[in-house]
Design a protein that fits this description.
Number of domains: 2
Distance between the termini: 70 Å
Radius of gyration: 35 Å
Strand content: under 5%
Structural class: mainly alpha
Number of strands: 0
Helix content: 55-70%
Shape: rod-shaped
């Protein structure tokens, strides 16, 4: 839209940065939306302001740091938890077997030893923050390697459980960025916030000018409409600037003895 340079010089705006400029635009648009009908020229300028406001808000949102996508981390954590829970239940079943002969008794004893090593502290550590949880799981799997407990898993028919523990743990560590460096998303181009703020400021000025020009003293309803539409603008104008704030009161002088 071609801007009216005379209007731009006639309407004064409060000091606005990109965030406060976007907020003022939204306030003005909210007021306009509450009206059943606007005069055609005001409706056109409202639409122009809405378009400019949308562009500014998009630019502002692009300038924010990207949100952390924790969905994949939660999925990896869930697999880690399920793997350890399943292994614990499997071992509990092996421990509960009745030692009906020497071969079974040997397996029950091995299951008890493995259960004590891996699950002697229970599974409460699975509720720790992700990286601490991973560290606790890693400590237990290193114990399996150091003490060659994979043979015990094999003796008890638990090869599949051990394989899942290892795979789930590896995937969890990679997802957390502990055992693998996750590729970073390419940086987004810098948003043209300043340019969009300038267009919003210009659109606000034209909208304000037209809302004032709409007033006809012979028709009080026109002033009432203008007042309703421009209430946010006037409230922003009335806010004191930081440089205009009243200075702090001087500290009270002490009246104690010796003064």
């Amino acid at each position: 839209m071609i801007r009216d340079t005379d209007v731009q010089s006639m309407v004064e705006l409060p000091q606005l940065d990109a965030v406060s400029g976007a907020a003022l635009a939204v306030e003005l648009l909210t007021r306009a939306k509450a009206e059943k009908k606007l005069p055609p020229r005001l409706a056109d300028l409202r639409d122009d302001l809405a378009e400019c406001s949308d562009h500014l808000q998009i630019a502002l949102s692009q300038g924010l740091a990207p949100a952390i996508d924790a969905g994949s981390q939660r999925a990896a954590d869930r697999r880690e938890k399920l793997a350890w829970s399943a292994a614990s239940k499997w071992l509990a079943g092996r421990v509960a077997l009745h030692p009906r002969n020497d071969a079974v008794a040997k397996k029950v004893a091995a299951a008890k030893q493995l259960q004590s090593t891996l699950f002697g502290e229970g599974l409460t550590w699975l509720r720790l923050p992700f990286k601490q949880e991973w560290g606790e799981a890693d400590r237990r799997l290193r114990k399996v390697e150091d003490d060659r407990l994979s043979a015990t898993f094999a003796l008890l028919g638990g090869d599949d459980f051990l394989a899942e523990l290892r795979e789930a743990h590896s995937a969890f560590g990679a997802e957390l960025g502990i055992t693998a460096v996750k590729p970073e998303a390419p940086p987004k181009p810098a948003p043209e916030v300043r340019a969009h703020l300038d267009t919003v400021r210009a659109a606000i000025k034209e909208y304000v000018f037209q809302a004032v020009a709409h007033v006809d003293k012979r028709h009080p309803a026109t002033k009432e409409l203008s007042d309703r539409l421009l209430k946010p603008y006037r409230e922003w104008q009335s806010k004191p600037r930081a440089s205009e704030a009243a200075p702090p009161a001087p500290p009270a002088q002490s009246t104690g003895a010796g003064q």
